[in-house]
Each structure stands twice: as structure tokens, then as C-alpha cells.
Amino acid sequence: MMASIWAVVPAAGRGSRFGGELPKQYLHVQGRLLLEHTLDALLAHPAVSGVVLALADGDALWPGWTEYAGRPLLACTGGESRAASVLAALQALPDSVRADDFVLVHDAARPNLSLADLDQLLERGRADPVGAILAAPVRDTLKRAGDDGGIDATESRDRLWRALTPQLFRRLQLTRALQAASEAGIEITDEAMALERQGLRPLLVEGREDNFKVTTPADLARFEFELSRR
């Protein structure tokens, strides 16, 4: 049986690109919060023993849950950036999570994670000395734009991947990598980037294309459609 693991979910963002008053994680889809669908996907795996959510300071919408699907759900105050929120959540993990234990980091607004992908990530990532991320190969043709909006060049998509979540790294190693990036004034867009700055090479584990992040109203409609097909 696979050893248990904790997950960290940064949920302190305001969702400004989505528009509207409500942060994305609190939007309703089929009568439930988007965040609930994300937690359902994470906790569908029996190895995930608990979750730490990093929330915005003074989040009045947080329902105050202390458990979910029969497993502990902890909340802490996140920061102004993704990296700051992940750091806060890593520090809020229970003492039972050791420095060299692997921890999952997953987007609060990525609710369409498949159980098979999560299983593959845990199995292959924990066998790697650094860890791993779910990712998808780039299949579209890539264009580089000029300042005037015209095409300057067609870029090779060879060996290019789109980074997804969850991402899987050791607690202390990820903490130190995020702290180092912060001290250097580097804005981290995903956890793997922080490890890469340390000269480490996380493993790419191919995941499904439909593990998308809800960023626009069209993404929300797409998730509603995916739910209707289940």
C-alpha cells in the first residue's frame, strides 16, 4: 500500500483575470464550490491523508472546515504571491510531516484532476530523487509576437511541455528553494521553477490534457460540461 502524503493548496488569489467579485475557488458549479470539486479530486486518492489550504488574509468566505472527506483540513494565511502562499502552507503542515517527506502542491482552481494521473505522479515522483510534476507536451504551433502584434517567428515546440499540477517535492527541499527565490527577488510561477533554480531536474509525468485551470468564464463552462459527462 502507498505511504500517506499531505497536500498543499494555495487559495489566497483574488482571481482578477476571471472578473467579478468572487474569488474563483468560491464559484458554484452544480451546487458546490469549485474548491470542493478540487478537494474531491485530490482526496479521491487514498494516499492523500490531509490538506493545508493557504487562504487570503481575512477571507470572509471560508466555511471554516476542519476536515473534508473524513480527513484533516488545515487552513493558514497565505501571502501576496503564489510562492508566499505555498511557503506558508508548507510551514503549517503538521509535525508528523518530516523534512524529507514528499508533499503535493495543487492549484485550488484545477478541479478536473484524474485519479489515474495522481496515482502515476505519486508512484513515479516518489521514486525520483527530486520529485515530479504533471505536465502535457505542447501540441500547438507556437508563434513569437512582435511589439506591433505581428508574427516575428515560429518557435519549435520540440521538447516543450505545459506545466500542470499537482507537483510533488520534498518538504524541506521545496521550502528552501522557494525561500532562495524570494530572497533573490525572483517571481516563481510554479514550484518546479524554484527547484530548477537550485540546479535540480524534476521529472515530467505526462498527464491528461483536460487537467485545466479555471481562469476564465469559458473554463468554468468547460468544467460544467465535463461534470455533466460523468
Give a summary of the structure in a few sentences:
This protein has 230 residues and is α/β, with parallel strands linked by helices. It contains 6 helices and 12 strands.
Chain-wise SSE layout:
Blueprint: E1 5-11, E2 28-29, E3 32-33, H1 34-43, E4 48-55, E5 67-68, E6 71-77, H2 82-92, E7 102-105, H3 115-125, E8 131-137, E9 142-145, E10 151-155, E11 161-170, H4 171-183, H5 191-196, E12 203-206, H6 217-229
Parallel strand pairs: 1-4, 1-7, 4-6, 8-12
Antiparallel strand pairs: 2-3, 5-6, 7-11, 8-11, 9-10
Helix pairs in contact: 2-4
Describe this structure in words.
This protein has 230 residues and is an alpha/beta fold. It is built from six helices and twelve strands. It has an eight-stranded mixed beta sheet. Strands 2-3 form a two-stranded antiparallel ribbon. A two-stranded antiparallel sheet has the order 9-10. The longest helix is centred in the C-terminal third of the chain and has 13 residues, at 171-183. The two termini are 28 Å apart.
User: β content, as a range?
Assistant: 25-35%
Task: Calculate the terminal CA-CA distance, rounded to whole Å.
Answer: 28 Å
Structural class: alpha/beta
Q: Total number of helical segments? A: 6
Q: What is the number of strand segments?
A: 12
**Succession of helices and strands:** EEEHEEEHEHEEEEHHEH
Q: What share of the residues lie within helices?
A: 25-40%
Instruction: Describe the main β-sheet briefly.
Output: 8 strands, mixed
Q: Largest sheet, order of strands side by side?
A: 5-6-4-1-7-11-8-12
* Poorly predicted runs: none
Instruction: Tell me, rounded to a whole number, the average pLDDT.
Output: 95
- The backbone outline, from C-alpha atoms, is globular
Radius of gyration: 18 Å
